[in-house]
Amino acid sequence: MNIIKELGALRLILVASALIIAFLSPEPGTSVDLDGWGIIPTAVIPAATPLIFMVLMFDFMMCRIRMSDEAVREKFSTIGYIELAAALFLLIMWLPFFLAIGR
Fold this sequence. Notes:
Blueprint: H1 2-22, H2 39-66, H3 73-102
Helix pairs in contact: 1-2, 1-3, 2-3
């Protein structure tokens, strides 16, 4: 419970979004559906994934910068590693899909 409080609302939403999006990766080679609700899993989520990844990386970088202050070093170290783990999980889950786009 203390880790959730340390993360704060915005970081918690960011990490939760990354974990949810990680499980929504379509199969490699899936065609884009441009009609109705099919556009969300085939176009919107794949477009949002790199954005979520980059925001996680930017916030991880800011945590590393804030770690220079001795008073909050442990707090931002924990937050940074949680975000790094979420970003790596997101990357691992989506890598096959994005590699298939390049083929």
